[in-house]
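Appendix B, example 12.
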Amino acid sequence: MTSSAPAHRSDGPDQPGRLAGPLFLAASAVGAARTVNAWRPISRTGRGSVFAFGDGVTVSEMPLHTIAWQAALTAGFATAGAHHTRAGRAGLALTAASWAGLVALDRIASQADEVLDAALVDGLGSDYRQRMSATVATPSEVAITRRQVANPLPRLRRRYATTRDVPYGEHGRRNHLDVWRRADLPDDAGAPVLIQVHGGAWTMGSKEFQGAPLMGHLAERGWVSVAVNYRLSPRGTWPDHIVDVKRAIAWVKENIADYGGDPDFVVITGGSAGGHLSSLAALTPNVAAFQPGFEDADTTLQAAVPMYGVYDFTNRDGTGNPGMEALLAERVVKRSLVDDPDAWDQASPMSWVGPDAPPFFLAHGTNDTLVPVEQARSFASMLRDASRQPVVYAELPRAQHAFDLFSSVRTLHTLWAIDRFLAVVRSTA
């Protein structure tokens, strides 16, 4: 009598493939959710707005890189047999939809030059390119190279921050600055000067980690840039922050000629809290309340380029982030709006808008979940109504807060637009 083992039946993929399918579907769902958040943020209020920013800015500024990462993940799961399962095939469909969204985000970012040029025409006039003097004019056509697209985090600080940690005040490293310039720039160049003020909700951040794309771009174009630290809350109390920025401006005016800069042409920029401080500094030249002990120092500026800034502490027109009042009251101003409305009012750039404002270039993303784009629109409108100088307002579709952390395609277009704006300001000063 003989017996035989039952024949092996193959009902589908082996065990690793059956595990890979659901895992790939889960990973694809996460990738698709990230794309959706970059396209339309999951939340614009509360803690969700912070998450929407943190993940959204990376995806929206590096959509092609995100496709590459998702493609590598897809290839790995395919090798494990995930595509032979129903879950794996669903994952492929989700991934394909995610890639379509990412390609659309890349196309929108690539069209930022059109949005920015329209903003320049609106703020400066259709003939603005003709008003640039030959010595400062920018190229008529700017090509973004594949190498630039592939490397959104070039080591610009190592290349251009030639002098670091120079003290400008008495508060240790929080009163230090770095000077950025091209290595071959002569000490007597008389180059235009940019001051960069970092963001970080007035409570964090430093000169080392923000503003590099613009400072590097202008340094290569022959500018001198100065990145400054300032006192932070909760150790510092408002107006310590703006006092330090003013003191840094005074230092630049007195000393920048030693580094090849022109003290008579100084502009200021910054993002988020740095956008608040840079715009406030530009609108309050030589205001004694912000210059205790150095009231006679010259702090006038020739232009301001605030990015995704906070323009009002008081939220007078309802366009601000509703969660910001608690932060300001508890950690920054340390007095409530009700208890000290004058301090909050004086801290607001909107309160200082007037006919003597310098030229402004404002940039803000429509997807900003930390500082609503509506506040930038309101501030730009106020400036245009009151100022005798030009106001350029560029609203960038699908851009998140702090989009210029990366030297992305959108950021590179923004840098050239700022360059053109400053070329016009220099030519007509």
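The mean pLDDT is 95. The longest strand covers residues 261-271.
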